[in-house]
């Protein structure tokens, strides 16, 4: 089945120790997104790639970086995690390509839950 | 910002019908989506509306009024497994913005 896979599902790190979360997709979608979701809050968009074009949200801290080496993979790097960065990190993909709603339906991975000690 | 408002929590009984409302600001609107999210899991897509009116998918229906900045998700024949958060999300200026979600509790 075509899908979005995130690894690891659970990540525990120490304050200030860099973390990388990965996301892969077999949907051949053009767009890949990273959302941060804290408990009982809405998913918050951090950034997204449309093909190789990177789009950063204005309020995403510099501590968060992303890489998309090819169509299938996207990584989220947290350079110096703080206690406030503990959250579920959701990767999602969409076909993209215009106002057609089908193109904008997001398919999510299962998420990576980050704990910062 | 893009304000998306939904009730925080709703309760209903098994077999009943429940309507979850969502209001949003209309500028930059390009589609409205509903997602279901069980605790600790990723959101899963339920439905979307681009034009005014009702979209029906089995037990779930979603309605949109673009002029009023209003949508609702209707769930019929509620089952216990429908206990989850329901996220209203609006496509604004090339990105999907989520509301904080409505937690639905279904009791026997």
Features:
heterodimer; A: 117 residues; mainly beta; seven-stranded mixed β-sheet; four-stranded antiparallel β-sheet; globular; B: 108 residues; five-stranded antiparallel β-sheet
Q: Alpha-carbon distance between the termini of chain A?
A: 36 Å
Radius of gyration of chain A, taken over Cα atoms and rounded to an integer in Å: 14 Å
Number of strands of chain A: 11
Largest sheet properties of chain A: 7 strands, mixed
- Regarding quaternary structure, what we see is heterodimer
Shape of chain B: globular
Which secondary structure elements does this structure contain, and how are they paired or packed?
The complex is a heterodimer of chains A (117) and B (108).
Chain A: E1 4-7, E2 10-13, E3 19-25, E4 31-37, E5 44-50, E6 53-56, E7 64-67, E8 73-78, E9 87-94, E10 107-108, E11 112-116
Parallel strand pairs in A: 2-11
Antiparallel strand pairs in A: 1-3, 3-8, 4-5, 4-9, 5-6, 7-8, 9-10, 9-11
Chain B: E1 4-5, E2 9-13, E3 18-24, E4 29-37, E5 44-49, E6 53-57, E7 60-65, E8 70-75, E9 84-92, E10 95-98, E11 102-107
Parallel strand pairs in B: 2-11
Antiparallel strand pairs in B: 1-3, 3-8, 4-5, 4-9, 6-7, 7-8, 9-10, 9-11
Commentary on this structure:
The complex is a heterodimer of chains A (117) and B (108). Helix content of chain A is 0%, strand content 50%. By secondary structure, chain A is mainly β. In chain A, strands 2, 4, 5, 6, 9, 10 and 11 form a seven-stranded mixed β-sheet that branches. Chain B has 108 residues and is mostly beta strands. In chain B, a hairpin with a 2-residue loop joins strand 9 and strand 10 (95-98). Chain B is globular. The mean pLDDT of chain B is 92. Classes of the chains: A mainly beta (117), B mainly beta (108). Chains A and B meet through strand 5 and strand 10 of A and strand 4, strand 5 and strand 10 of B.
What would you say about this model in short?
The complex is a heterodimer of chains A (117) and B (108). Chain A has 117 residues and is an all-beta fold. Chain A has strands at 4-7, 10-13, 19-25, 31-37, 44-50, 53-56, 64-67, 73-78, 87-94, 107-108, 112-116.
